[in-house]
Amino acid sequence: MTRPHPRILPYGTAAIAEAAALIRDGGIVAVPTETVYGLAADATNAEAVARIYAAKGRPSFNPLIVHVADLAAAERIAVFDADARALAAAFWPGPLTLVLPVRGDSGIASLVTAGLATIAVRVPRHRAMQGLIAASGKPLAAPSANASGGISPTTAAHVAGSLGGNVPLILDDGATEAGLESTIVAGRTVLRPGPVTGEFITKHLPGEGRGPIGTSDVTGHSGHHDRPPIGPRPSPGRSGGAVTAPGQLESHYAPSKLLRLNATEAHSGEWLIGFGDVAGDITLSASGNLVEAAAKLFDLLHAADANESRKIAVAPIPLDGIGEAINDRLRRAAHR
Ligand code: TXA
Ligand code: MG
To answer: CA separation (Å) from 58 to 51, 52, 64, 158, 218?
Structure first.
C-alpha cells in the first residue's frame, strides 16, 4: 500500500545521518543534486535498486546513473580512457555523466546497468548528495525522483507530489540549481544534452585534430557543422534528427539463446527460470516476491546464457507493480 505522506527533513547533519541509515538498510531516499532531485539507493544492493523501480512505477528497466564521491571512486567501478579523464577533470564535481565500460569487479548490481557492459557514472556537486554518499559509504544509484512518465522534480514538494508515500524520506535542500538533468556523454557522443554543453565538452577533450564531440543538443543542432561526429551513433534513439532520451535507446541485454516466456515446465534442452509456484532450475523468487525477482533478473539471465543448456524458459511473472517492468525486459530479451 502506498503511504500518503513521505517525511520531509531539511538538510542538516541529523537528516543526512538518518537518510544514510535508510540507505545502508537497503531503503530509498529522495535527495537533491545540482540538477534535479534523485531517488537514491545503494547501487551494490540489487533489492534496494529494485525498490527504486518499484517506487517510480517504471514499466521497464532503464539503466541508472551511479553517483560517487570523486574520480577515484568512479575509477573503482568504470574503466576510464584519456577522454573520460579529461572530462572528469574539467567538469567533476558537476552535472556531467559519463557512460564507460563497467569494471568486472565493480560490485554494482546488474539491475543498475540493466545487464549492459557499460555504466553511467557521475560525481555530483550538491552538498546533500555528496553528504549522503559520504555518510552511507555507498555508491548511489539514482534516477530522477518522479513517478514514471512524470517530469523531473526540482523541489522536495515536486517529489512528494509525484511519489507520495512511495518514498519514505525526502531530504529537502531547496530548489535545485540546474533544474535539468545532467549531460550524458558516451565516447565522444552526447547521448543526452544538459547543463554542460557540447561546445564546452569539445573544448576540454584532449588531442588536437581529433574532431569535435558528436553533439546533439535539445534543438538537434550540433555546435560544429563542419566535421562529422566521432564515436558511436545512438541511431535507434534518434527521431527527427535529435537524440531522444537515452532511456529510449534500444540497447538492452539480450541472451544469445532462445528464450521462451510464460513457461510452467521445462521442455527438452531448456533451463527453466522459476517464479513462485514454478520452481524451475533456479528461481527469481520462490515466495513470488516481485522486488526480489527484479533484483535477480539480469543475473539469472546471464547465468542461463552462460550454462550448458541450449535454451532458456522463464515462468510467468504477474504484471502488477514492478512486474510490468520485469515482463517488459523479458519480452525484449525474448524478441528475435
Ligand atoms: O541529473 C541527473 O542525471 C539525474 C540526477 C538525479 O543525477 N539523474 C537522472 O537519471 O536523470 P535518470 O534515470 O532519470 O536518467 C538516466 C539516463 C537514462 O535515460 C538512461 O537510459 C541513461 O541515463 N543511461 C544510464 N546508463 C546508461 C548506459 N550504460 N548507456 C546509455 N545510457 C545510459
Ligand atoms: Mg528521469
So the answer is: 11, 9, 12, 18, 24
